[in-house]
Amino acid sequence: MESNYKILIADDEPDILTLLEKALIQEGFKNIIKAKDGNEAAALCRQENPDAVILDIMMPGMDGYEVCKKIREFSLAPILFLSSKNDEIDKILGLAVGGDDYVTKPFSPKEVVYRIKAQLRRASYGSVSSSDPIRVGKLVIDPDRCEVRVDGRTAELTAREYELLKTLAENKGRVLSRERLYESVWGETAFGFDNTVMVHIRHLREKIEEDPNDPKYIITLKGLGYKVVDPDER
After folding, report:
1. Which of 3, 10, 106, 147 is the least crowded, having the fewest Cβ atoms under 10 Å away?
2. What's the pTM value of the predicted model, to 2 decimals?
């Protein structure tokens, strides 16, 4: 099944491009696109519409963060960042601009491929499901279109933000812990996880709440987690 997916790798180091291409091919991926800088990566993404993107952060022309922003203008494809930086702020920035995962150099090629496969599985599960829109007050989540509208306005969410909001809305009124949300949305064990969920919740509020500092839809229960509520029913 992997051979049907189109993967774009963007890195200014030829050895890394070759290393990742070989690792992907060994796991059954045949349609690999390579870009040697940020400008080429952005252009190829728009032209080829890949199913997933492996994106180096430090590239000439346009860095990975800027490329990610460009991709998010037209695509919800999973984006995995590669970086020589291990600072938490860099990881948070990567998630904030629309990235889905983050791997620090030096890395295991097999781990990168595993993470890409996990992202594609989750994206695939989301794309085949079909159901009626989920309505919470003036918030509407359309699973068929992967679209969110607030009071008639479309909210531009990343793929991860969409899945996080959808998970909360499907459990309207129920408190979901950060650990459970992480495991449900990211598909990985929550052992040792950082503040990834908190960062995504903050950005979700900025996009769907009238006042992110006084949220009406996504409520925090200190020490317990988060829940989605209908403001009209509070």
Report:
1. 106
2. 0.58
